[in-house]
Amino acid sequence: MSQRPPSQSAAAGFASLRPGFCFSPEQDRLLALGWPHLRFVEDRDDANFARPVIAAVTDPDPSPDLRWSRSGAIAMVRTLGLPEVMEISLSSRSLRPEAVRESLNDDPITLPELRQFIQRRMMLPLTGASERHIENFVLLAEALVGSETLATLVVEALEGLDEGVLEATWALPPVVTYTLGFVLLRVPVVAERALRERLQLLFAPYQNMISGRRAAWAGALSHLRALDLVLNGAAAAERSTDRTLRWYLHVSDQPELIRSRVASDLLGFWPDARLVFLGGDEVMCRFGAQLKRMHHPRDVGFFIEQLAPIRSERSLRLMLIAATEGPRQPEGEAWFRLHYMWAAPFLDLIEAGGGIPATRATTLKARLQRGGA
């Protein structure tokens, strides 16, 4: 998203707007539009734009960066649009020469180029990449060309795939199709309906095959299963996946199902503000344990960033952990300074309740008072 979100009457995602869920109307709109599954492109000088591109591409499982310079976004899309990016052996992991070249290339991407990049990512595996790389590719491309244009290109690519490719089960290409569900939230309503009608026509011949019985989960999506999830939400997540929580991010009308899946999850899951928006703040009851297992400053920083907009006592309790433990305490403390008038009564209640949370609250209040909150 290289500009402000579309007007409230324009974007399809605003049908799920929840005023007051966040601290500001702007944040409410972002949550309705799929936060944190979006990217912002900023027009700013960035002489070192290749550095974060190379770091993200070479990281086997990068933490999402939501904000990019325009040059960095272009270079990232160009790099991840190559047929292959990495040279990987038992002892090393490095960029191919053509990937190094594209990481330095911030020439504007033409629509024919982007169409080719999208077709590649929907038909070719990408050695050494993760689902986060593919989502980043799609969302940065969206930020560069606009939601409707990007969604249209993905739908056209799906319409051009033969049956064997649509049905094939593989790790990464179907992530493009799954990510389309987030992009559609930001497409104007009329265009979004038209694109969904085209997707329904594409999916219709396979409907009975997918929904007639619960097919065995093979450990990865196909384009058809991803399309089922985008179009059919809860029903698809229940019948077409292993029912882990990452496949419930397009379930917009059954918060109780999401809460049930969170409560029964045994594997642990990456905390996601989208799940909180869809399932209610009760979803965050499991986030504290996940936060305590995070040790990389990058991961904790993203945890704070994505939950920061949510106005909830549960989010406050998570921010209290982040502000008093771990590698990103200054960011957690800054959140309390920003929302001090709202947060202060909750801190008093937590302090009066005793135990470890009370110790955290006392520690944080002392810091805030020293800093003049």
Descriptive report:
The chain has 373 residues and is mostly helical. It is 58% helix and 3% strand. The chain contains 20 helices and four strands. The chain starts with 24 loop residues before the first helix and ends with a helix. The strands form two sheets. The protein has a two-stranded parallel ribbon with strand order 1-2. The longest helix has 18 residues, at 223-240.
Task: Supply the key terms.
mainly alpha; 373 residues; 20 helices
Strand-helix topology:
Layout: H1 25-32, E1 40-42, H2 50-58, E2 67-69, H3 70-80, E3 86-88, E4 93-95, H4 97-103, H5 111-123, H6 131-145, H7 147-159, H8 163-167, H9 173-184, H10 189-203, H11 207-211, H12 223-240, H13 255-264, H14 273-279, H15 287-293, H16 297-307, H17 313-324, H18 329-338, H19 340-352, H20 355-370
Parallel strand pairs: 1-2
Antiparallel strand pairs: 3-4
Helix pairs in contact: 2-3, 3-4, 3-6, 5-6, 5-7, 5-9, 6-7, 6-9, 7-9, 7-10, 9-12, 10-12, 15-17, 17-18, 17-20, 19-20
Mean pLDDT: 93
Topology order in helix (H) and strand (E) letters: HEHEHEEHHHHHHHHHHHHHHHHH
Strand order of the largest sheet: 1-2
Query: What would you call the structural class?
Result: mainly alpha
Structure at a glance:
This protein is mainly alpha-helical and 373 residues long. It is built from 20 helices and four strands. The protein has helices at residues 25-32, 50-58, 70-80, 97-103, 111-123, 131-145, 147-159, 163-167, 173-184, 189-203, 207-211, 223-240, 255-264, 273-279, 287-293, 297-307, 313-324, 329-338, 340-352, 355-370, and strands spanning 40-42, 67-69, 86-88, 93-95.
